């Protein structure tokens, strides 16, 4: 029986090592995702439209897009009713999600010390409303509740799984490999979001783990989730 201490799970590589072992994440999963990249890439525009149509269909998720985005210099909207898929600020947010989706099927390194996990971890941190990223020092806090983050992740996975299952250019064995690999990585992403929202030690609010590195911050900040700002 392998011993895993609770304290060790606060360290990101140790946490990834445990999760990878539990989920049986192996290099072959990375190979499957990488092989799927040429097939998934053409679907990204359709996925982006579907995701943002969904996000803008609820005021509670749409309101995250009203404040000015960090890199946006154009005209701002005054309320959620003015938001559309064609609005320049939404187009900028689409770029963030595009980078995220490409990242999921582009990594060649799923080892516990990979910067890929730093990137996914920072995606979770940046939506908690806590300080830590230099690019948001002078910006209002960005707080997106975990329920919306989890729902969005589930919606994206559902779209991608449906797209993979409908592909005629790969056989069922390959479809199975891609979907299983995606499922493992996404569940780790879910944990790397949830860990920063969970209450620790019975307190009212847990402390958010700061970004792990300048390089990790850069990746997480620029290629993160559609709520990023």
UniProtKB/TrEMBL annotation:
Region named Disordered: 205-229
Question: What Gene Ontology molecular function terms does this protein carry?
Answer: heme binding; oxygen binding
- Signal peptide (residue range): none
List residues of the Globin-sensor domain. Answer: 14-198
Q: Which Gene3D superfamilies match?
A: Globins
User: Which Pfam family, just one, is annotated for this protein?
Assistant: Protoglobin
Domain of life assignment? Eukaryota
The identity of this protein, by name, is Globin-sensor domain-containing protein
Name the lineage: Eukaryota, Fungi, Dikarya, Ascomycota, Pezizomycotina
């Amino acid at each position: 029986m392998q011993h895993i201490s609770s304290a060790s799970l606060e360290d990101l590589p140790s946490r990834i090592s445990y999760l990878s072992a539990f989920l049986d994440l192996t290099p072959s999963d990375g190979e499957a995702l990488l092989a799927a990249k040429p097939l998934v890439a053409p679907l990204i525009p359709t996925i982006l439209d579907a995701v943002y149509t969904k996000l803008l269909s609820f005021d509670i998720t749409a309101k995250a897009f009203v404040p000015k985005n960090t890199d946006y210099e154009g005209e701002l909207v005054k309320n959620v009713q003015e938001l559309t898929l064609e609005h320049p600020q939404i187009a900028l947010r689409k770029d963030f999600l595009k980078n995220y989706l490409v990242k999921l099927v582009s990594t060649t390194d799923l080892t516990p010390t990979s910067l890929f996990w730093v990137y996914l971890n920072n995606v979770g941190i940046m939506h908690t409303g806590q300080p830590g990223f230099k690019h948001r020092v002078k910006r209002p806090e960005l707080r997106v509740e975990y329920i919306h983050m989890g729902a969005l992740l589930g919606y994206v996975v559902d779209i991608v799984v449906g797209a993979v299952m409908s592909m005629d250019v790969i056989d069922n064995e390959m479809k199975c490999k891609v979907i299983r690999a995606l499922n493992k990585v996404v569940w780790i992403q879910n944990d790397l979001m949830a860990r920063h929202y969970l209450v620790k030690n019975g307190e009212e609010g847990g402390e958010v783990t700061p970004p792990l590195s300048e390089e990790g911050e850069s990746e997480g900040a620029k290629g993160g989730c559609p709520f990023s700002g």
